[in-house]
Amino acid sequence: MNEEQKKIVAGYKTVGKSFPKKVSSQLLSGQPVFTDDITPSDCLVVKLVRSPYAHALVTEIDTKVAMRIPGVVAIYTYKDVPQKRFTHAGQTFAELSPQDRLLIDQRVRFVGDVVAIVAGETEEAVDRAIKMVKVKYEVLEPVLDFRAAKDNDVIIHPEDNWQALVPVGADNKRNLVAHAEDTHGDVDGIMDDCDVVLKHSYHVRPANQAMMETFRTYTEIDRYGRLHVISSTQIVYHCRRIIANALDIPKSKVRVEKPRIGGGFGAKQTVVTEVYPAFVTWKTKRPAKMIYSRYESMIAATPRHEMEVTIKIGAMNDGTIRALDMYTLSNSGAYGEHGPTTVGLSGHKSLPIYTANCEAHRFDYDVVYTNVQAAGAYRGYGATQGVFALECIVNELAYKLDMDPMELRMKNIVREGMTMPAYDNEVANACALDECIMRCSKEFDWENKKNPVDLGNGKIRAAGMALAMQGSCISNVDVGSCTIKLGDEGTFNMLIAAADMGTGCDTILAQMAAEILDCELDDISVFGADTDASPYDSGSYASSTTYITGMATKKAAQSLRTNMIKIAAEMLNKPVEELEYNGDGVYAKDGSGFVSRYDIATKSMCNNTIPATVTASHSSPVSPPPWMAAMVEIELDKETGEVEILDYHAVVDCGIPVNPALARVQAEGGITQGIGMALTENITYNKKGRILENSLMNYKIPSRLDNGRLNIEFERSYEPTGPFGVKSIGEIVINTPAPALVSAIAKATGVWHRDLPVTPQKILLNMDYE
Amino acid sequence: MEISMTLNGRKIKASIEPNTLLIDFVRAQKCFSVKRGCETTNCGLCTVILDGKPVLSCSILAARCNGKTVETLEGLQEEVAPFTKFLAEQGADQCGFCNPGYIVNFAALLRENPDPTDEEIDFYLSGNLCRCTGFESQRRAFRNYLNYKKEQEGAK
Asked: For labelling, which of A47, A58, A141, A469 has a CA lying 20 to 30 Å from the CA of B136?
């Protein structure tokens, strides 16, 4: 930050301060605020008949016997649903994800794919009916190996009405969801000229978001005859469009509302449960509800894209990194949700970290269909996979060059003011990455911890490090909006369609509004999100809410402030130029008059034509990256292969943290999820394509005994295009644990693990006893 | 079948199916704080106090609670209020879905051990998963509360 920026930031009254979340007392006292708590229980229970095969055609389906079970109300099969294809991906229209779904398809494409929708008055009746639906399948050969999917003889989406709305290199007849090639500079020539060239492949599995609240949706016909959907979703507006597409009804017939959300992490950026009860309600006109079990959330939801990232790095003996060459193979599974977009981040939101000396880079990719659960959006959204590969190979390069990995990075990282060719030539306007590294190394004591120590008791202590980046929105796409109303007694109502899924955006957006309106945080009530009441917002994903909806909030607050001065001008009978707003109200600069916020609010409701409700929207041509450095110390048990995390230090440059307490918890939570992905969260399939880790008993997310001690600090930078200098924090924080832990394990064992998770079994089986 | 129990200090009688789980029973009694996060007794979200001991209500039949005392967060508001504000201060509530489970369990811990160490807290609450926080903010909040409590007691 320069001196002027420091001065601006020092003047903030509400932004940059820690406040409890606006919903704290509700959440901490266990009030009914979630979907299943606030919706009636005497509605139809909706569940699905699921395919036992990874790839098959339904040749016969008989529901007659099942329909005779008392309490069963409706059973729908592929014969009953609209035949226009759509996507479940919560993205701005026209979605980059292919239109490849039907509500129920005759072809089933993974173990767990929908075969029939069953609705009944009790769960028992529905469970019995599911067993009584008689299905005959023509079992087809599945494509289970994503490395063999492209141009396979088995085509997963042969249908003629499959459609890619945007040219992303997709070709359903080749099992391709997306493909691209992009080269800047003479990559091969520079590689030839380098002293050292390393090339390796890194494999990340389809980790599950495992938010504590599984997917759930309630639907009813409201008093206007429209379909009212209450769902745990990050994307109310996209949800409305997708439901209307799925049911083939006008969008205007659908209203989507979200109550509190019990965690999302991207999972709820894709439609999962919404369309099924919506269809039941639309058909039967009766209220319906679908509550996913944990089992269903593990086998038929929307996990991370499995990726194999092959990266080649060219450097000189002094550590100058001159060329980067990345190829990502991404597994979209049975459907293409978020396939064309997640893959892009594996390169675009990793390679720019090493901008300083990089003369040429290449980034090619393929995204393929296979017969496993479709992937979706998960915190990090492809950047996690790319950063894992890049940061691992940089650590391997340091090892090869016998250099301190920190020193190697300081020599090559992007610095403030640099143009980033691997990031659409955006300029790093706010970048404190160098300060993040220096501070992290100091707090962690890298100098003394960087070399492994054999403790003589069968255990080795070792340390590793990694850097990370992300974006702050989808540039030129995401739209954020905010409505602010001046209400009785001079308090404010803020309406948004960004989704607080625990992240705290209700609170931090209100902090921004309070900063401009110069009022107490408690003077602002927040409402969100409801497509009938909230202004349009893409929703909460792509790390965009603070940066994009934040700017919309700032604009709305500014414009309301201006209007309040105009109303006051009429009251005081003075021109607006002579008036100023100071939070309490509006006063004449010459001291000749004052009207309070209370009185302006009262006036706004009597003989007034100046809007006291304003809406503002925002979109951005750039997506400024947050930056991060992390260091971890582990103790590795040579007898058991067990890795214990002792100490995790991370320093994040998210611009200006709006609420440092909440930003810190974002970082701690993201790092812990990253630790799970790195060490314990495994996904494997049997030969028939069935997922083995289908519960929290065998899909091991970290408990409070597993994540060591986390120490988070912030290095502030000031992003000129963001409200109050902010960037983003939500996603970047999941990116460092895997590469940092892999390098610490390599220091301890001499083995570089390139396939996550690095389990004790893998460590033991590969232990290098030399 | 008919059962009776004391739920949050109130004596109730109800007719239930023999296979009704305690979690579904208390939710039907409008104790919506009790949440289900898994089906395999791993998440700890459904923790309630049964005759003074914290238990997972997803793995206990309501019938087994006949004649017993059940407490959910709804009935523990006064007991937990002194420490939940420390959680709010740290932003440790996050999405809120797991809060009732670990808050009830922490209350149970304090009944057994009014001055636990950080290690004892971690161990006692190890069955309470949380996907949002990474647990550190909860640790800080509990420590701040216990320190505050000691200060208050010392001042007396």
From this structure: A469
Topology annotation, domain A143-153+162-206+303-422 = Aldehyde Oxidoreductase; domain 4 (3.30.365)
**pLDDT (tens digit, 9 = 90+) per residue, A241-252?**
999 999 999 999
For domain A431-463+624-770, is the CATH number 3.40.50.970? no
Copy the structure tokens of residue B89.
Answer: 């201060």
**Rounded to a whole number, what is the largest CA-CA distance in chain B?**
54
Does the pLDDT of residue B41 top 90, yes or no? yes
Do B135 and A672 count as a contact with CB atoms less than 8 A apart? Answer: yes
pLDDT at A768: 66
Find the residue in A nearest to B75 (Cα). A29
Q: Please state, in angstroms and rounded to a whole number, the distance separating the CA atoms of residues A750 and A462.
A: 11
The strands making up A643-653's β-sheet, listed across from edge to edge, are A453-454, A459-469, A627-637, A643-653, A709-714
Contact A23 B93 (CB under 8 A): yes
Q: Is A474:A755 a contact under the CB 8 Å cutoff?
A: no
Give yes or no for residue B155 having a pLDDT over 90.
Answer: no
Buried b / exposed e over A195-215, threshold 16 CB at 10 Å, is: eebbeeebbbbbbbbbbbbbb
What pLDDT, on a 0 to 100 scale, did the predictor assign at position A770? 45
- Using DSSP, state whether B19 is helix, strand or coil: coil
Is the CB of residue A481 less than 8 Å from the CB of residue A521? no
- Domain spans of chain A? 9-31+475-618, 35-142+209-299, 143-153+162-206+303-422, 431-463+624-770
Cβ pair A704:B38 closer than 8 A: no
Q: Which one of A704, A705, A711, A731 would you mutate to disrupt binding with B, by most B Cβ within 10 Å of its Cβ? A: A704
H/E run at residue B141: helix B136-155
| Beta-carbon-side half-sphere exposure of residue A743 (alpha carbons within 13 Å) | 31
Cα-trace Rg, chain A: 27
ipTM of the complex: 0.98
Q: Which domains does chain B have, with CATH numbers?
A: 2-72 (3.10.20.30), 75-155 (1.10.150.120)
Domains A9-31+475-618 and A431-463+624-770 share a fold: yes
Look up the CATH architecture of domain A9-31+475-618.
2-Layer Sandwich (3.30)
pTM of the model: 0.97
Second CATH level (architecture) for the domain A35-142+209-299? Alpha-Beta Complex (3.90)
